[in-house]
Amino acid sequence: MTAWLEVLGVSAKLGLTSFGGPAAHLGYFHEEYINRRRWLDERSYADLVALCQFLPGPASSQVGIGIGMLRAGWLGGIAAWLGFTLPSVILLVLFALLMKGMNLAAAGWIHGLKMVAVAIVAQAVLSMGQKLAPDRARMTLVVLAAAAALFWQTPYSQVLIIAAAGGAGLWLYRHTADERPAAYSIRISRWAGACCLGIFLLLLVVLPLLRSSWASGSLALFDSMYRSGSLVFGGGHVVLPLLEREVVPTGWVSENDFLAGYGVTQAIPGPLFTFAAYLGAVFGGIQGTVVATIGIFLPAFLLVAGALPFWNSLRSSPRVQGALLGINAAVVGLLLAALYDPLWTTTVRGAGDFALAAGLFVLLVFWKLPPWLVVLAGAAGGLLL
């Protein structure tokens, strides 16, 4: 079998069965790619995961893209992304079309899905806060970032908050460094990597300029999704505030539809970034789906291909490690702000809503039920309320 077709088949299997979010996806990848197929050794897999945690974007998708590239070159990277992404894209588009055709926004079970979103983001804030802000300096950065995000809401505020936190981490942790990591072997040339990074930066600068001078809904959607996919550190949940600020104030997607779609995204396999496909479908049907999906995942592809050749030297720098500690704390703060606004302020309207959200949180965190079961419980609870 052609190598890229093999990658496509294996990644499609993972796209149909990988429930549970980015951390669970990495476990599925390890079992399939490392234990069963031995496409990489343990150390190489750990190095690749470390790189993708360092980069902005959907970490699990980036790990899959990287494995596909190592296995079958550029076509392998594309095949790995398609296989892992398409199943959830198709499911979310079907849900978006159902929402449009049947006007379900006011249904009780849709309100229950919003409660699921509250519980899942609260769980993400708790778990990420424990891992990424374990000391008082980083917890202070969390609170400052959350406050800044709530009081200062502009198109560029989150970028500047992340940059400021990176500068703070650079100073606070300038003498902190892990052991020098082992060297990582990669077949992509530095020239090709530099070209990918150049394209990534060029699009980040040029797309907003084109959008301001050329009235096109598809171009505006692509720019919004590309920018969101370029600036997300910390996993799929963190894209929520970025996407909300791009699509709700503009009127592309209503607050009800946005939160309902986010709740459903938790119940299906595959990457959380496919939430963008749902938003694109609500905004512009199938064309919107294609534009939004490519827009939000393209930065991930360019960054993985661009960073792999330089990773060995980059990750050995104490300065980079320190900046990343500050950035990760700011990520938790941005997610905390999103938990309050828009999730809490627009969703929790009384004692019943609070009780349902708290119950779903307990099911997730303490009973450790799979997300799809919690989604069903949320929908049933919304119907009862």
From TrEMBL:
Major localization class: membrane
Localization per record: Cell membrane
Pfam families: Chromate_transp
InterPro entries named in the record: Chr_Tranpt_l_chain (IPR014047), Chromate_transpt (IPR003370)
Residue ranges crossing the lipid bilayer per the database entry: 78-98, 104-125, 137-153, 188-210, 275-308, 320-340, 360-384
NCBIfam families: 2A51
Family: Belongs to the chromate ion transporter (CHR) (TC 2.A.51) family.
Name the record gives this protein: Chromate efflux transporter
Organism taxonomic ancestry: Bacteria, Bacillati, Bacillota, Bacilli, Bacillales
